[in-house]
């Protein structure tokens, strides 16, 4: 069984909206709904677990799950203090799963073919994640000065989904909990076990909506997607 674990418990303080950025409307539809749509429509995803803040569970049920009639959402889980805690809470609900696809609720433009590729790589290697190559020159800074220019061909910016064999990612989280290890993403926890994570090259459109500037970028990406969809329809 392949489960999509969508993490949507963050408050998005950097956005300064006064409410969770997951419910921000882009072209009339919530960010979180656009994200769920991708996994709901993907035939290779068997079920979905969503992690939301405790005080938003009822709102999410009524205004997202029931409103859009999602069929694959099997559990809505209460988030924790940090993202790492939220993911672990979600993993506990994935006991029947063989593969878990962990994805940020604020990344609504992930492509289905990229999700599938992470699943295939996780089946083969145990762990995989989407990433994109650095476009700009990357430098190491110490204090007030540049110390070293890094080879940008070897630098990738990590994205989600990050996809794992269930027992591996559960063990990584339990090990981190036992050792007091905190990380900003799940691949880092797997690396703590000495395991390698396979790279799947993703898309620069797979942005995480974090700041107000990202809203305008998201609207442009959506317009581009609609334009190319129309172009394809014309030539089919």
UniProtKB/TrEMBL annotation:
Organism, scientific name: Caloramator proteoclasticus DSM 10124
Gene3D superfamilies: Spore Coat Polysaccharide Biosynthesis Protein SpsA, Chain A (3.90.550.10)
Site feature (Positions MEP for the nucleophilic attack) residues: 152, 208
EC number(s) from the headed UniProt entry: 2.7.7.60
Function: Catalyzes the formation of 4-diphosphocytidyl-2-C-methyl-D-erythritol from CTP and 2-C-methyl-D-erythritol 4-phosphate (MEP).
Site (described: Transition state stabilizer): 14, 21
Record-level Gene Ontology MF annotations: 2-C-methyl-D-erythritol 4-phosphate cytidylyltransferase activity
Name of the molecule in the record: 2-C-methyl-D-erythritol 4-phosphate cytidylyltransferase
Pathway assigned in UniProt: Isoprenoid biosynthesis; isopentenyl diphosphate biosynthesis via DXP pathway; isopentenyl diphosphate from 1-deoxy-D-xylulose 5-phosphate: step 2/6
InterPro entries for the chain: IspD, IspD/TarI, IspD/TarI_cytidylyltransf_bact, ISPD_synthase_CS, Nucleotide-diphossugar_trans
Alphabetical GO biological process terms: isopentenyl diphosphate biosynthetic process, methylerythritol 4-phosphate pathway
Family, as annotated: Belongs to the IspD/TarI cytidylyltransferase family. IspD subfamily.
Pfam family, one: IspD
PANTHER family cross-referenced by the UniProt entry: 2-C-METHYL-D-ERYTHRITOL 4-PHOSPHATE CYTIDYLYLTRANSFERASE, CHLOROPLASTIC (PTHR32125:SF4)
Alphabetically ordered keywords of this record: Isoprene biosynthesis, Nucleotidyltransferase, Transferase
Top-level lineage group: Bacteria
Top EC category: transferase
């Amino acid at each position: 069984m392949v489960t999509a674990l969508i993490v949507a418990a963050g408050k998005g303080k950097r956005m300064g909206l006064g409410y969770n950025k997951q419910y921000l409307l882009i072209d009339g539809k919530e960010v979180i709904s656009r994200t769920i749509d991708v996994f709901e429509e993907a035939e290779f995803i068997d079920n979905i677990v969503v992690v939301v803040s405790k005080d938003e569970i009822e709102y999410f049920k009524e205004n997202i799950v029931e409103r859009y009639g999602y069929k694959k959402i099997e559990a809505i889980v209460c988030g924790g203090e940090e993202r790492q805690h939220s993911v672990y809470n979600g993993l506990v609900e994935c006991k029947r799963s063989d593969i878990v696809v962990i994805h940020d609720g604020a990344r609504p433009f992930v492509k289905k073919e990229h999700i599938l590729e992470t699943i295939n790589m996780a089946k083969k290697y145990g762990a995989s994640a989407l990433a994109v190559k650095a476009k700009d020159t990357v430098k190491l800074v110490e204090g007030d000065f540049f110390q070293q220019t890094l080879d940008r061909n070897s630098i990738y910016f990590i994205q989600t989904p990050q996809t794992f064999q269930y027992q591996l990612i559960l063990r990584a989280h339990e090990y981190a909990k036992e050792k007091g290890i905190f990380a900003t993403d799940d691949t880092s926890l797997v690396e703590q076990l000495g395991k390698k994570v396979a790279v799947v090259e993703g898309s620069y459109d797979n942005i995480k909506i974090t700041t107000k500037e990202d809203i305008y970028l998201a609207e442009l990406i959506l317009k581009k997607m609609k334009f190319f969809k129309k172009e394809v329809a014309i030539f089919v």
